[in-house]
Amino acid sequence: MRTERLPTLEDVARVAGVSRATVSRVINGIRNVDPQLHEVVWDAVGRTGYVPNRLARSLVTRRTGTVALVVSDSESHDDDPFMGRFFADPYFGRVVGGLMSVLRAQGIQLALQIVGSDDVRKRLVGDLRNGQADGAIVLSLPPVDPLPRMLTEGGVPAVLIGRPAEPVPIDYVDLANDTGAALAAQHLLSRGRQRIGMISGPADVPASSDRIAGFRRELARHGHGWVPTETGNFTRDSGETAMRALLAAVPDLDGVFVANDLMALGALAALRESARQVPSDVAVVGFDDSSAAVAASPALTTIRHPLEDMAAEAARLLLARIEDPAMRVSSVIYEPALVERDSA
Amino acid sequence: MRTERLPTLEDVARVAGVSRATVSRVINGIRNVDPQLHEVVWDAVGRTGYVPNRLARSLVTRRTGTVALVVSDSESHDDDPFMGRFFADPYFGRVVGGLMSVLRAQGIQLALQIVGSDDVRKRLVGDLRNGQADGAIVLSLPPVDPLPRMLTEGGVPAVLIGRPAEPVPIDYVDLANDTGAALAAQHLLSRGRQRIGMISGPADVPASSDRIAGFRRELARHGHGWVPTETGNFTRDSGETAMRALLAAVPDLDGVFVANDLMALGALAALRESARQVPSDVAVVGFDDSSAAVAASPALTTIRHPLEDMAAEAARLLLARIEDPAMRVSSVIYEPALVERDSA
DNA sequence: TAACACTCGGAAAGCGCTCTCCAACCCCGA
DNA sequence: TCGGGGTTGGAGAGCGCTTTCCGAGTGTTA
Questions:
Q1: What is the span of the domain harbouring residue B115?
Q2: Of the candidates A90, A78, A337, A71, which has an alpha carbon nearest to the alpha carbon of residue A234?
Q3: Considering only Cβ atoms within 10 Å of each terminal Cβ, which end of chain A, N or C, has fewer?
Q4: CA B38 – C1' C4 distance (Å)?
Q5: How many structural domains comprise chain B?
Q6: CB-closest option in B130, B156, B265 to A53
């Protein structure tokens, strides 16, 4: 059945008794077509069961109705389990959900691309320049990624989710990570905590360093010039390890800010293991307000990250840039909010 | 910059001093080309920075190097929040991760498509027949979905994740949901539970009805002919509501099987609210072994669902079918396993 | 040396569509 | 009745690539 030829514009034209050009005009809703013919053509389309071939159309219009979602990750290789973790993390799904909420309405599809090596990166940019997709949304994982620059230099419409580590003239949406961390600091202070520590993410990732900076700055403003810190890598287990280390270093710790909910989960486990009560002995504030925050026990007080909205805005930004490539480069920063639950 | 014409095969040919045909042969690694010319051509490719245009290539080869991931969902409309929930659920991410683990190695990209209305469904099948993608992986949400049939009738290579509700000659991978539920029953019984209930999913979804049937059958084999059951819709909140209802109906309940982890989370909350201890008063077994299971407290004893493996197998199956459309229709059923944690 | 079988590279015909020209036609005023 | 302006539809040239078909060149055998 795959072999039976599908009807083409030519076939429709023959059935309708007009030329290919006319059918094309009718289908694309271009005026200058006699209403009578109009009807005849649509009738022929119905009778033949014609569906335009998007590929052929794209080849000439240079528009594909596709946006690439690029997950850039220099470290992992082909079947690195890291990618599995990444996809299982709600982060990925929330981004996709946010993107689709605006793309779907426009009938635009999302093509998922993972780039590991520089080779793949180069090919991707080449494909995009060739019009494989109309633009790209980039989730840049590595601390410093050449991809954003490659894209702008290639003239490919692209929007980053999360600010680039080094300045690149590219559109992006981001969260005011520093403000969020400051919120966490204020909350901990307002709860009367005195010995406050932090479990941070990798220092070279912008989102992470912003949280560190914001937290430290706010505490410093209240006389805490020194914040004991342990570094994790955003996984649950690293949070558990970091918490143990932090407790060993500061046994009388009474408050901690953990840079994401997943690590907070691990921290909670370490705290339980050390027989400390949360929040009475140690107050814990997470970050992201992911589904893990609600599932945790006690439920996590955390910083809400409107990821879906951010992704949706990224999609809108991209669409606008595709429409007008000369548009001024812009960025949209979202404000986080504290969500108070039981852990602090 | 978008305007500057990219080098085409023609340009490379001119630089190399050969014909387009020869360049094409070299690039596609077809023999019959003098090694000398071979080198000259590659050199020209390098000098011009040529990247083949996939669109143009696909148009003639009828191969796109793209697989569609179709999320079929008849109920929700354009910005139905349901889709947001769906994407945020780890289920989606795990599937994507599993698929990508095999597709990525082949350099195949995944194009995400959501189909809500029958109109979209029709257009999608048309596009697929036109070679928009080489095949489709289908995540069929509604109880009875016309899509699988439409795809097979259209001769589109497709693989379902989760068996079709009504028999359709289509490849699929699925989990032995009934066996999994039976495992849960055995575990509860082995823990000496006597008054065992169940919180099920919607009865018209195959995965759900299989779990109900498997659980009831196993309990019946051990003399429990009647299993008090409440129905949820796989969300956390519905699990909480169902648990309350179940407790009201069977106050001395001492064991419960909840058809997925998310609902189990809700059930745990309801149990806590009613001051019952888990697992001493009521033992709880979930289903899926999602990340929620570990985050819960107490950590959930649950049924492991090798979703990543299943998705990977679906991808392999699809690739095989694309290669040989005449291949016999096949299905792969995975066996679940009990993961014992603290809740039962 | 002639006849034959091969190997290799080029010309050109598409894949299915859009869109620019251009010819044909209509209506109007002079 | 004729010429000018405005519509409308068709012919055909691509978009960038693959692939068939052929002719030219090479080496081998009688």
A1: 66-174+308-333
A2: A90
A3: N
A4: 29
A5: 3
A6: B130
